[in-house]
């Protein structure tokens, strides 16, 4: 019998008893182990004539709750987890008379096999979730410095071979470490099988009536970010802020190249993202420019050239555009750069920039100029915090299911092709204005925007006031339905000729009647775009 430099006490607790008897025999007869075992395992061993102490005898605590608690005892876990090189751990063991355990042999209740059978009830499957086994395995794996953990009968011969060999402690430690890693992998796979099973939709029906009638079915949401930049401050100077990136390899602002200008601020990043999202509503075929202020667009324009688009977007509300953030969807050229150098602007972002344009812009040292290659790619989900948690929702996608094909003309007059185009433009912009949102547009340019109002007619009035005489012959978009006919009536008085809105109010007929009375075209999209 080789001499031992580890505890010869082994705990065997296995559901799959394959190879158990010869292995246990070898442990006892050839290597001098004393065996501890849980009920069923102890029975098999003693029937085979192998000396074994039941865990319940060792702990003085009987197995209870029909086997739900067998090995969960400090006399077991203290013996497994003790760091034998530490005198304080040793003192604890001595004080309580706990012998260290050097080998733990466990395999789990066959959960996967159980749930693979047809017609297994949730209650039956739940009983097959092994608690004590993974606890033993995790404890032994954690203390790999002193304990060997075997989780598969296929490991038995290899372990016996190691015991018989003359190899040194470093090789034994390497073996224990490898077994520990394998053990944690098995625990992980076991838990994954449980999670997958519990996610089966049909299980909800099997829940007892006294259980929660609306259990949360979602998986745990894990949010992890890599710090990209400690920002100078947050929304206000007294708020600390950091910018995190979820996946450095995926498209996003971390891939933007800043050609010049001061460091990006928290508010710059928010406004840049708002500008990107608006620009992403439009394809690259036609030039689009947007000026964003406080996360709302104050001017958006669609034109054959980028310079013309910027000129129109800026002119849409040149008062608000002061200090704005500009988003462009085409390569920033010399002509556009020239226009950008005139007003005071905070940032400009474009998918690319010519050398000439970059040179011109360099005269405006403080203007932040960014090149964002994958500007169409936005987040798939959005996240907002609240006391005690956060909310996650799918992003409102650009050019999603909301298209002309699904829209309905609800008025007597049908839109002309030009009106269809104008309404589509206004609708796309309106989606990016804080609710209640109203956008008035004419010839591919916003002329009035009512943002973040607490009542819809108030937003209409603000937008009309800003549009002034331009409202005549313009189109109007509303992000939510009209609760009353008043918004349509006010719009009609200013000469609005077409309206796009989701529809869905019980008073839709009133709004439609008001539109018909004023010869206004109205489209109901069937989809709304609140933005809070
Ligand atoms: N509850 C406990 O304390 C506990 N301790 C060990 N087991 C598991 O019981 C099985 C062995 O039981 P038995 O020796 O009674 O056949 C093993 O799969 C082992 O992972 C337990 N069972 C379930 O959690």
From TrEMBL:
Pathway: Purine metabolism; IMP biosynthesis via de novo pathway; 5-formamido-1-(5-phospho-D-ribosyl)imidazole-4-carboxamide from 5-amino-1-(5-phospho-D-ribosyl)imidazole-4-carboxamide (10-formyl THF route): step 1/1; Purine metabolism; IMP biosynthesis via de novo pathway; IMP from 5-formamido-1-(5-phospho-D-ribosyl)imidazole-4-carboxamide: step 1/1
A molecular function (GO) term: phosphoribosylaminoimidazolecarboxamide formyltransferase activity
Domain MGS-like: 1-151
Entry keywords, A to Z: Hydrolase, Multifunctional enzyme, Purine biosynthesis, Transferase
EC numbers for this chain: 2.1.2.3, 3.5.4.10
Transmembrane segments: none
Reaction(s) the record says it catalyses: IMP + H2O = 5-formamido-1-(5-phospho-D-ribosyl)imidazole-4-carboxamide; (6R)-10-formyltetrahydrofolate + 5-amino-1-(5-phospho-beta-D-ribosyl)imidazole-4-carboxamide = 5-formamido-1-(5-phospho-D-ribosyl)imidazole-4-carboxamide + (6S)-5,6,7,8-tetrahydrofolate
PROSITE patterns according to UniProt: MGS (PS51855)
Gene3D superfamilies in alphabetical order: 3.40.140.20, Methylglyoxal synthase-like domain (3.40.50.1380)
Coiled coil (residue ranges): none
Pfam families found in the cross-reference section: AICARFT_IMPCHas, MGS
Annotated domain remarks: The IMP cyclohydrolase activity resides in the N-terminal region.
Family statement: Belongs to the PurH family.
Protein name: Bifunctional purine biosynthesis protein PurH
Organism in which the protein naturally occurs: Thermostichus vulcanus str. 'Rupite'
């Amino acid at each position: 019998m080789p001499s031992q430099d580890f505890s010869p006490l082994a705990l065997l607790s296995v559901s799959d008893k394959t190879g158990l008897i010869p292995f246990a025999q070898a442990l006892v007869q050839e290597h001098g182990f004393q065996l501890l075992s849980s009920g069923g395992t102890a029975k098999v061993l003693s029937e085979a004539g192998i000396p074994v102490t039941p865990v319940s005898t060792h702990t003085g605590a009987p197995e209870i709750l029909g086997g739900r608690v067998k090995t969960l005892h400090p006399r077991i876990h203290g013996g497994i987890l003790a760091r034998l090189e530490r005198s304080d751990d040793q003192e604890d063991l001595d004080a309580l008379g706990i012998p260290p355990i050097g080998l733990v042999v466990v395999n789990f209740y066959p959960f996967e096999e159980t749930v693979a059978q047809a017609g297994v009830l949730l209650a039956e499957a739940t009983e097959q979730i092994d608690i004590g086994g993974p606890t033993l395995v995790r404890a032994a794996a954690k203390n790999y410095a002193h304990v060997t953990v075997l989780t598969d009968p296929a490991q038995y011969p290899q372990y016996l071979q190691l015991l018989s060999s003359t190899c040194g402690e470093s090789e034994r430690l390497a073996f224990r470490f490898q077994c520990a890693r394998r053990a944690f992998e098995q625990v992980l796979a076991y838990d994954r099988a449980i999670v997958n099973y519990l996610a089966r939709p049909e299980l909800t029906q099997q829940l007892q009536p006294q259980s929660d009638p609306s259990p949360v079915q979602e998986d745990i949401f894990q949010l992890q970010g890599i710090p990209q930049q400690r920002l100078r401050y947050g929304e206000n100077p007294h708020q600390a802020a950091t910018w995190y990136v979820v996946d450095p390899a995926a498209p996003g602002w971390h891939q933007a190249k800043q050609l010049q200008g001061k460091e990006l601020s928290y508010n710059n990043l928010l406004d840049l993202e708002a500008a990107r999202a608006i620009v992403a509503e439009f394809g690259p075929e036609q030039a689009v420019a947007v000026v964003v202020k406080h996360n709302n667009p104050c001017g958006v324009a669609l034109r054959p050239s980028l310079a013309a688009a910027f000129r129109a977007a800026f002119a849409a509300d040149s008062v608000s555009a002061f200090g704005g953030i500009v988003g462009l969807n085409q390569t920033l050229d010399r002509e556009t750069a020239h226009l950008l150098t005139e007003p005071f602007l905070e940032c400009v972002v474009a998918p690319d920039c010519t050398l000439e344009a970059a040179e011109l812009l360099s005269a405006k040292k403080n203007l932040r100029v960014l090149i964002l290659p994958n500007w169409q790619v936005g987040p798939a989900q959005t996240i907002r915090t609240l006391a005690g948690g956060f909310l996650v929702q799918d992003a409102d996608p650009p050019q999603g299911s909301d298209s002309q094909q699904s829209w309905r003309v609800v008025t007597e007059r049908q839109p002309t092709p030009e009106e269809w185009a104008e309404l589509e433009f206004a609708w796309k912009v309106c989606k990016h204005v804080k609710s209640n949102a109203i956008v008035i547009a004419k010839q591919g340019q916003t002329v009035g925007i009512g943002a973040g109002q607490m009542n819809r007619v108030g937003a209409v009035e603000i937008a009309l006031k800003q549009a002034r005489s331009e409202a005549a012959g313009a189109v109007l978009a509303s992000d939510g339905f009209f609760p009353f006919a008043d918004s349509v009536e006010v719009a009609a008085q200013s000469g609005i000729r077409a309206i796009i809105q989701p529809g869905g109010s019980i008073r839709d007929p009133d709004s439609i009647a008001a539109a018909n009375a004023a010869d206004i075209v109205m489209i109901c999209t069937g989809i709304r775009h609140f933005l809070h």
